[in-house]
């Protein structure tokens, strides 16, 4: 990373291979997501997994909560492979995972990773037995495991133990500190138990999810200092719309700035009929705007003011951003480095030409009272002036030509 304000390296941790994707180690930070279909519905789940993968989700998690869901997993994997979609699938298990993985070995084999919550794998002696079954299954099939602790489902026995210890302490912790200690203790003790059962450190990812921004920053900062396991970041129950996006961005950006985090999931509640892949785009944009990874060319655009009485520049900026994101699906396969391309769509003469010159391709649209022409700048040089009714189409053609001529074609694998 080039900026002196951003850590030169991430926190060191053990890399974990999940199918074809690596979490941690020297690998880039991975964006993942989760379906909200009934997993027992093979077709619906397959389609949503493919949609999320197409949007850029590098891992996709699916709920495995019933016998019907477990039976469907292998079929979902096969359907995806037939479509040429090889995104690794993560199985999300709660309460009965030990039974489902044992009863359906084809499910255990088809999944690339298991997610288990140590707070709900069982009570008392059954907890230890059932946790052991889950880990032994992971060892048998050589699968990594995310030990995902959640503040809403902490192991009551472990929590009671920590509360008793705190009550006896000379300087007791407050409730928030107790909660953070319980989360971290559950994760680290469970990971240690998994290692005792034979699961290597290179097969373990940890998460400690809460719904408060400051709590998440505090708990992951403490967890990161106490271990070298790969860490999965995410604000649980982030919420809908701008609230969920702002909260997730605020929490994750602080941790990522500190070099903490190896994979992220933005847990947005979709609006009725909303696009599930929005959480993937938000995750990508968090990483890209922080300079940690590049996924797709981003469009800079002015916010508009009294000088920009027309909404045309807003519509053009939106359409160009949508266009390059859609084209990126093919560009990614054909060209090296195109994700780093920068575009600018500006709405008047004040900052338009200057901002456009700083982008690889920029257009300065006419504002109120300006001549009805739009100069286009390519790598800082004015190349053409657009006018008329097809400015959007002509600008897209300029973008296409720039990609074809400026970025190296990838060599096809033989």
TrEMBL record:
<dbReference type="InterPro" id="IPR058579">
    <property type="entry name" value="IspG_C"/>
</dbReference>
<feature type="binding site">
    <location>
        <position position="355"/>
    </location>
    <ligand>
        <name>[4Fe-4S] cluster</name>
    </ligand>
</feature>
<feature type="binding site">
    <location>
        <position position="302"/>
    </location>
    <ligand>
        <name>[4Fe-4S] cluster</name>
    </ligand>
</feature>
<feature type="binding site">
    <location>
        <position position="348"/>
    </location>
    <ligand>
        <name>[4Fe-4S] cluster</name>
    </ligand>
</feature>
<dbReference type="GO" id="GO:0019288">
    <property type="term" value="P:isopentenyl diphosphate biosynthetic process, methylerythritol 4-phosphate pathway"/>
</dbReference>
<dbReference type="InterPro" id="IPR045854">
    <property type="entry name" value="NO2/SO3_Rdtase_4Fe4S_sf"/>
</dbReference>
<dbReference type="GO" id="GO:0051539">
    <property type="term" value="F:4 iron, 4 sulfur cluster binding"/>
</dbReference>
<dbReference type="Pfam" id="PF26540">
    <property type="entry name" value="GcpE_C"/>
</dbReference>
<dbReference type="GO" id="GO:0005506">
    <property type="term" value="F:iron ion binding"/>
</dbReference>
<keyword id="KW-0414">Isoprene biosynthesis</keyword>
<dbReference type="Pfam" id="PF04551">
    <property type="entry name" value="GcpE"/>
</dbReference>
<comment type="pathway">
    <text>Isoprenoid biosynthesis; isopentenyl diphosphate biosynthesis via DXP pathway; isopentenyl diphosphate from 1-deoxy-D-xylulose 5-phosphate: step 5/6.</text>
</comment>
<protein>
    <recommendedName>
        <fullName>4-hydroxy-3-methylbut-2-en-1-yl diphosphate synthase (flavodoxin)</fullName>
        <ecNumber>1.17.7.3</ecNumber>
    </recommendedName>
</protein>
<comment type="similarity">
    <text>Belongs to the IspG family.</text>
</comment>
<dbReference type="InterPro" id="IPR058578">
    <property type="entry name" value="IspG_TIM"/>
</dbReference>
<feature type="domain" description="IspG C-terminal">
    <location>
        <begin position="299"/>
        <end position="400"/>
    </location>
</feature>
<dbReference type="InterPro" id="IPR004588">
    <property type="entry name" value="IspG_bac-typ"/>
</dbReference>
<keyword id="KW-0408">Iron</keyword>
<dbReference type="GO" id="GO:0016114">
    <property type="term" value="P:terpenoid biosynthetic process"/>
</dbReference>
<keyword id="KW-0411">Iron-sulfur</keyword>
<dbReference type="InterPro" id="IPR011005">
    <property type="entry name" value="Dihydropteroate_synth-like_sf"/>
</dbReference>
<dbReference type="GO" id="GO:0141197">
    <property type="term" value="F:4-hydroxy-3-methylbut-2-enyl-diphosphate synthase activity (flavodoxin)"/>
</dbReference>
<comment type="function">
    <text>Converts 2C-methyl-D-erythritol 2,4-cyclodiphosphate (ME-2,4cPP) into 1-hydroxy-2-methyl-2-(E)-butenyl 4-diphosphate.</text>
</comment>
<keyword id="KW-0004">4Fe-4S</keyword>
<keyword id="KW-0560">Oxidoreductase</keyword>
<feature type="binding site">
    <location>
        <position position="305"/>
    </location>
    <ligand>
        <name>[4Fe-4S] cluster</name>
    </ligand>
</feature>
<dbReference type="InterPro" id="IPR016425">
    <property type="entry name" value="IspG_bac"/>
</dbReference>
<keyword id="KW-0479">Metal-binding</keyword>
<dbReference type="GO" id="GO:0046429">
    <property type="term" value="F:4-hydroxy-3-methylbut-2-en-1-yl diphosphate synthase activity (ferredoxin)"/>
</dbReference>
<feature type="domain" description="IspG TIM-barrel">
    <location>
        <begin position="16"/>
        <end position="283"/>
    </location>
</feature>
């Amino acid at each position: 990373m080039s900026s002196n304000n951003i850590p030169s390296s991430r926190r060191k941790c053990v890399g974990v291979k999940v199918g074809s994707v690596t979490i941690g180690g020297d690998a880039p930070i991975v964006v993942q997501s989760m379906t909200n279909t009934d997993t027992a519905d093979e077709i619906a789940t397959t389609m949503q997994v493919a949609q999320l993968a197409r949007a850029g989700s590098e891992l996709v998690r699916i709920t495995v909560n019933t016998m019907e869901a477990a039976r469907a997993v292998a079929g979902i994997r096969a359907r995806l492979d037939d479509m040429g979609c090889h995104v690794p699938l993560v199985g999300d298990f709660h309460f009965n995972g030990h039974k489902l993985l044992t009863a359906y070995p084809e499910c255990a084999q088809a999944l690339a990773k298991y997610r288990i919550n140590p707070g709900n794998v069982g009570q008392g002696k059954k907890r230890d037995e059932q946790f052991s079954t889950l880990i032994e299954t992971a060892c048998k099939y050589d699968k990594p495991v995310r030990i995902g602790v959640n503040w809403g489902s902490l192991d009551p026995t472990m929590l009671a133990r920590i509360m008793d210890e705190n009550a006896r302490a000379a300087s007791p912790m407050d409730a928030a500190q107790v909660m953070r200690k319980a989360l971290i203790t559950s994760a680290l003790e469970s990971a240690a138990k998994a290692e005792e059962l034979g699961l290597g450190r290179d097969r373990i990812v940890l998460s400690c999810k809460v719904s408060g921004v400051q709590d998440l920053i505090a708990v992951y900062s403490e967890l990161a200092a106490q271990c070298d396991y790969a860490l999965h970041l995410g604000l649980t129950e982030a919420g809908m719309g701008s609230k969920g996006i702002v909260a997730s961005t605020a929490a994750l950006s602080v941790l990522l700035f500190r070099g903490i985090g190896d994979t992220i999931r933005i847990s947005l509640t979709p609006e009725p009929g909303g696009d599930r892949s929005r959480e993937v785009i938000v995750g990508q944009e968090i990483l890209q705007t922080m300079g940690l990874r590049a996924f797709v060319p981003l469009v800079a655009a002015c916010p508009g003011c009294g000088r920009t009485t027309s909404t045309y520049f807003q519509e053009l900026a939106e359409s160009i951003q949508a266009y390059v994101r859609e084209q990126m699906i093919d560009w990614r396969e054909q060209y090296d480095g195109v994700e780093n391309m920068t575009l600018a769509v500006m709405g008047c003469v004040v900052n338009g030409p200057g901002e456009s010159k700083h982008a690889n391709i920029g257009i300065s649209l006419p504002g109120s009272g300006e001549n009805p022409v739009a100069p286009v700048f390519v790598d800082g040089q004015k190349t053409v002036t657009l006018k008329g009714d097809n400015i959007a189409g002509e600008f897209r053609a300029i973008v296409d030509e720039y990609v074809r001529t400026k970025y190296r074609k990838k060599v096809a694998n033989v």
